[in-house]
Hints:
The chain is mainly beta. It has helices at residues 2-18, 27-32, 48-55, 181-184; strands spanning 40-42, 45-46, 86-96, 104-120, 123-133, 139-147, 155-163, 196-206, 210-217, 235-245, 248-259, 272-284, 288-299, 313-324, 333-344, 351-363, 366-375, 380-390. The longest helix has 17 residues, at 2-18.
Amino acid sequence: MKKVITYSIFILLFFCFFIESALSIPAFARKYNLSCNVCHYVVPKLKPFGDEFVGNGFQIPDKEPQRFYRNTGDPELTLMREFPFAVRLELYGQLEKGRDVNPDFRTPYIFKFMSGGNIAKDISYYFYYFISERGEMAGIEDAFVMFNDLFNQDLDFYVGQFQVSDPLFKRELRLTIEDYKIYSTRVGNSLATLKYERGFMFTYGIPTKTDITFEIVNGNGIDTKEIFDVDKYKNFLLRVSQDVNEHFRIGAFGYYGKEKPKEAFNPNELSNEMFIIGGDFSIMSKYAELNVQYVYRSDDNPKFLTTIPSNRIKTQGGFAELILSPDFDNSKWFATLLFNKVESDYHEINYESYTASLSYNLKRNIRITGEYTYERETESSRGALGLWIAF
């Protein structure tokens, strides 16, 4: 416990020391002296230019501001004048049917400390640290180094910690408190989900506006261990997406892996072999965006039983998300409708929810949001009203 407290104090002092230069607008907007809506039409949701900026390693090609870097006299060394930091803060009050404690003041619900930038030309980094997530110190989630345009091709390489589902729809960029449930669903005792993993990711863009992603990951999440993987196996994802035109995108992916439980040391002992396949599409206009994802998963022994079940355990589901904005990136109001569905042979993980969210931008980086979610399986509902801030 003492170590946790000491570490927390160190992080906070570190934060306070460097945050002085980060009090006005988020780090990348500060670097280029641009408004947040150049990349976002509502923070954190990205516009196409924002997606391109991220894909280029958090840089605008041939427009890097020299004032941002120190003149060291050494062409082999790139040093930023000021270390880029930003903060994301979310504070909510929540009412939930069936709870004895109502309302519940979740302030803060999220306190995220972020940094990202260029280490050298076409080499960048990004990480964030949850100083508080749902009342606990969650630690580091995203943390990776990216190599951009390898071999003068549209080929990028990521190494570190990221979400398996990032090439599909990024959970961190959604506008709702309600999650994309199918990405975080665990089947039985399996540790494999479409959430955070450690490993490698390659992305390649073809001139036909086709994007290909390949991942190699541990497959057991990011709980800290002396050995980060719990078995000798690695999991693999292949993703292909195609921009049909500027308003319509389709995609498909496949994910395969094998795993043993933490307790298994005998190579002939229990294992679980799983695969996930899915498809998705997005329809985008100036005033609305529709995102739809379908996921099918099959496991042969997700509870690591001594006898492999005669039938594979099947889980399927997905989500549909509709985002409405009356005046695109100049809108003050944004509405989101989200439908979640998970259906499994393990009925205890079945899930179906309906969410409606309404947001109002006080400023580009300050948003008031109200949200209501109804869960069909438990016949429960919850409402939240809160404040979303990035600076």
